[in-house]
Amino acid sequence: MTTLTSTLTKSSASRRAFLAGAGGLVIGVVLPLKGRAQSSAEAVLGAASTEQQYAPNAFIRISPDNLVTILIKHIEFGQGPFTGLATLVADEMDADWSQIRAEHAPANAALYGNALFGGMQGTGGSTAMAASFMVMRQAGAAAREMLVSAAAQNWGVPASEIKVSKGVLSHASGKTGSFGEFAEAAAALEPPAEPKLKTPDQFVYIGKNVPKLDTADKSTGKAMFTLDVYREGMVTAVVEHPKKFGAVVASFDDKDARAIPGVIDVKKTSAGVAVYAKNTYAALKGRKALKVTWNDGAAEKRSSAEIAQERLAAVKQRGAVAGEKGDIESGFANATITHEAEYLFPYLVHAPMEPLDAVIERKEDGGVEVWMGSQIPSGDKPAIAAVCGLTEDKVTLNTMFAGGSFGRRAQPVGNFAAEAAEVFMAHGGKTPVKLMWTREDDIRGGFYRPLMAHRIRAGLNDAGEIVAWEQVVAGQSFLSGSAFEGMIQNGVDATMVEGASELPYDIPNVNVSAHIINNPVTTLWWRSVGHTHTGYAVETFVDELLDKAGKDAVEGRLAMMGEQPRLAAALRKAADMAGWGRAAPEGRAFGVAAVESFRSYVAEVVEVSMENGAPRVHNVWCAVDCGVAVNPEVIKAQMEGGIGYGLSAVLFNELTLADGGEVEQSNFHDYRSLRIGEMPNVEVEVIASTEPPTGVGEPGTPPIGPAVANAVRRLTGRTPRQLPMTKALQA
Q1: I need a surface site. Which of 10, 102, 593, 718 has the fewest CB within 10 A?
Q2: Tens-place pLDDT, residues 69-88
């Protein structure tokens, strides 16, 4: 676990004012960046200037009207960073929750880098809370001390005698004052070198439930999404993309498209053919009228079934070693029972409610301003700059609220940002342009969770102990050719094998290997990344082995978790919640799975029946240990959402390519999501912990699939080894 520390030091007046017009008190804190010497943090106080000589990456603004605004460097698309990170500041400040506000921070990696992303600015991997927990607390504590000092000087009393509660400073003499009243005076003071943090018993908000900061505006329509951005003279653009991955435009006829009322222009781009219009309807109608001839010489023309066979053939042999211990050959030599299975996981679409969109406008100084739901500004901003022929400082990127992502907006090479910039420049680079993707564009045009294959072989000894474990994984690496390519070491992409290369079980002889097999189909991380398939394969196979050994699914796991006490505790809690050991209702069965992902520990027990040959999940009991629980209701909501999202995937979801390579699905009518009446009852328990907080956006997803599969095996006698289950069970 990375240790996050900072020291607050005073800045000179010339360094203070890059937050132009902020007024009042402004606090900045630096987060040590991976690969850099730890620098001191700096408090940025007082009036504004334009110099940017120092790089703070977390800010608090206290304005004279007593509002406390927290600049959040992580995009808010429903997973809770606005509320979670603001909670830390509010608690250390002893602010009143009603005075707390949150805004997206500007796109600037030097100011807002994520230490767990190696200094890049971005959101993902459930890192927001882990990367900012100490930093935001320190910033809040520093602001509190400075306000108290300002009040003490004004009132002529010792600072130690001043109390702060719900945003009000008070003294026994009867004097009281608000943060806003003392913000300007506090700005002139020396910042504390080491602000004193609260002990857990002093927390007011941390560990409690507070109203989410973004809920009200999203409920009333006040919240601004990219779709809501309209600039003067703006045109809307849509792009006709190839139907085969890797195909490019050979020629096009735009006569009929230009004849559509409202269509303004048609231009070829590297991604396809862009149609510009006065409104979305005209743009879509114009695109439909286009006639495009594609050169598919380098395109993927195989069906997904053919690609799957390639992956299954690869896993028959070991690949590049991803993890090993002991002696795998002697382990199998000492086994009395061996068991082997192959698994196949399809391409999956992210399918967020808001498809991709962006608005780009030329600024008076020749730069550009962009509005989009950017998940990795450090990838999007340079991509835009490169296409527009600008230096990065000439690109202003405004991060907007986004309607979900699940990894879709986290593009390591800024593909969509680059396309938006190219569409803007192709139209002349002067008129504001809104590029919009439809859901059909997104489902048919990538990017997907890779199609993956696994082979697992294990051996049991006479005592029913697992003494050998061999696992081979094959599929695409979306890190290839990206800013994250350095993560591929010795032929292994760690995101392909996470959850398999470091098994949570005490098995003496292990060999895990991988084959990277890339092809033109565009892929991307998907909610919980590699754990989506490794968790399923590992947890269903372990369940089968325990069954063969005549051991209980919970007790058998616990006996092998000697080095995983937190995962074991989560498993015990989930089992207790479900009443594990009791007989299931008639026609139903229980299933269990436990997965550690993103440093959080989640166990889930499910109650399942079979209806018309398909699983029906009635109840889910979930226990999660994610360290200090900053906002328990947010954690529970993320577990519930992750469970629902994971159920959609394992029961129904599959993106397929027909013969010739064209995508067969287009929208929710044929890429089916879990329906409201199919959502099971979900109970979530958050395990109390004093460990540093970790992520919750993704860890609820991996255990649900294998838990359901294990219940299905108890009902039908077989484990679904190819997803989605509804298709596999009816085959």
Answers
A1: 718
A2: 999 999 999 999 999 999 99
- Strand ranges in 476-530 using DSSP code E only, listed in sequence order: 488-489, 492-493, 510-516
CA 365 centroid distance within chain: 35
DSSP 572: H
Shared-domain flag, residues 184 and 257: no
Q: What confidence score (pLDDT) does residue 671 get?
A: 97
Same domain as 573, residue 713: yes
- Determine the Cα–Cα distance for residues 535 and 541; give it in Å rounded to an integer: 10
Structure tokens at 243: 């139907």
CB 566 within 8 A of CB 601: yes
In a domain, 586, yes or no: yes
Nearest to 451 by CA among 567, 307, 564, 313: 307
Burial 261-282 (b: 16+ CB within 10 A, else e): ebbbbbbebebbbbbbbeebeb
Instruction: Please provide the DSSP assignment of 524-568 as one string.
Output: ---TTTTHHHHHHHHHHHHHHHHHHTT--HHHHHHHT-TT-HHHH
What is the H or E stretch that residue 55 is in? none
- Segments forming the whole domain that contains residue 200: 8-217
Q: 548-579 pLDDT, tens per residue?
A: 999 999 999 999 999 999 999 999 999 999 99
Calpha distance 510→66 (Å, rounded):
59
Q: How far apart are CA 687 and CA 623, in angstroms?
A: 7
Residue 730 confidence (pLDDT): 83
Q: Are 402 and 546 found together in one domain? A: no
Exposure string for 131-154, b = 16+ CB within 10 A, e = fewer: bbbbbbbbbbbbbbbbbbbbbbee
Condensed to tens digits (0 to 9), the pLDDT of residues 129-171 reads 998 899 899 889 999 999 999 999 999 999 999 999 999 999 9
Chosen domain end from 194, 217, 240: 217
One domain, residues 139 and 259: no
Tokens of 592: 């269990």
542: left (phi over 0), alpha (psi -120 to 50) or beta: alpha
On whether both 213 and 340 belong to a single domain, the answer is no
**CA 726 – CA 481 distance, rounded (Å):** 35
Residues found in the chain: 731
Q: Is the pLDDT of residue 240 over 80?
A: yes
Shared-domain flag, residues 194 and 331 = no
Structural domain contains residue 658: yes
Return phi, psi of residue 240, to 5°.
-85, 110
Whole-structure pTM value: 0.91
Among 155, 188, 217, give the residue marking a domain's end. 217
If one counts the domains in the chain, the total is 3
The neighbouring-strand residues paired with 371 are: 359, 398
> At 118, is the pLDDT very low, low, confident or very high (cuts 50, 70, 90)?
confident
The DSSP code for 486 is G
Spatial separation of the C-alpha atoms in residues 30 and 9, rounded to whole Å? 11
**Cα 110 from chain centroid (whole Å):** 21
Instruction: Report the alpha-carbon angle 509-485-414, nearest 5.
Output: 135
Torsion of CA 623, 629, 631, 636, to 10 degrees: -10
Is there a cis peptide before residue 724, judged by omega within 30 degrees of 0? yes
Backbone angles phi, psi at 589, to 5 degrees: -145, 155
**Got the DSSP string for 223-245?**
S-BGGG---TT-EEEEEE--SBT
**Per the domain annotation, does 441 fall within a domain?**
no
3-state secondary structure of 269: coil
| Residue reference for tokens 């436990």 | 594
CATH code of the domain in which 372 resides: 3.30.365.10
CA distances from 267 to 276, 281, 312 (A): 8, 18, 42
**411 and 555 share a domain?**
no
The 10 Å Cβ neighbour count of residue 729 is 17
Please check whether residues 260 and 234 belong to one and the same domain. yes
Q: Confirm whether 376 is domain-assigned.
A: yes
